[in-house]
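ENTRY TYPE: paired fold submission
RECORD: A
CONTENT: sequence, then structure tokens
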Amino acid sequence: MVTDSNVKNLVKILIGAAWIDGIIQPEERQYLREIAQAKGLATDPEIKPWLYELVPVQPKECYAWVKEYLGDRPSLEDCESLIEAISGLIYSDGEVATEEARLLTQLQDLAEQESAQQPVHNALLKQIQKLYRRWVEVQN
């Protein structure tokens, strides 16, 4: 379960996601600094070197932080929340690099695995899919 104590880890993951393609875009930089400021972590000694690009984050570090953040058995809600947070960063520059898409895809796969283990969510998702398919058919 993700708790308030994981806010720092979430900011680390966002910084790692910005670095995952090897470069932080100006829009991503602005987004990260706003998030860090809002979370009260802009001057945190652990976060600051990454936030101000003094030290690059390697993709393996980002993935390790994701694993640490979600734990061994993440809930569907935790996965979806992380996907939403990372998506906000990734789409801030209007481009999605291959590495960024790969990260989102892996998180989505993890969310789907958790969803499969939650029959109620699965049944609800199937109902939503049926409604969507009907809507698409009506539109055509």
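RECORD: B
CONTENT: sequence, then structure tokens
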Amino acid sequence: MSCKLGTIIELPKISDPRGNLTVAERFKGIPFEFKRVYWTYDVPSGGYRGGHAHIHCREFIVAVSGSFTVTLDSGHKKQHYLLNHPYQGLFVDKGIWRTLEDFSSGSVCLVLAEDDYDEADYIYDYNEFIQRTECLK
């Protein structure tokens, strides 16, 4: 499995005095066909989301409102990304551990996922994640 840490991708931003518009289209900026869209909001102060990796599913994470920090971990390297622009997203490859934290008040995190929900695709135990990462070198 070839795993790399995330990539910030800028989506088209159409400026208009009535309000800006950003569009997300499969294979146009987002490097996969997304089958599922979900969002998190009202994350309590000091709370976090994520805390897992995916075996197959790639994701594209956008702060559509407010800001939060995404920490990506390959098992060998960690990197932090501050998401705070609704026209930018973070591409997260399969096999990368992710944690989202430091949510600002009123923030909304939108995720475009490559696959439908499948519990078997999640790795929730960090030690298991590290073992799988070691086996896949």
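NOTES ON RECORD B: The domain at 7-103+114-135 is CATH 2.60.120.10 (Jelly Rolls). Residues 26 and 33 are 5 Å apart (CA to CA).
STATUS: closed
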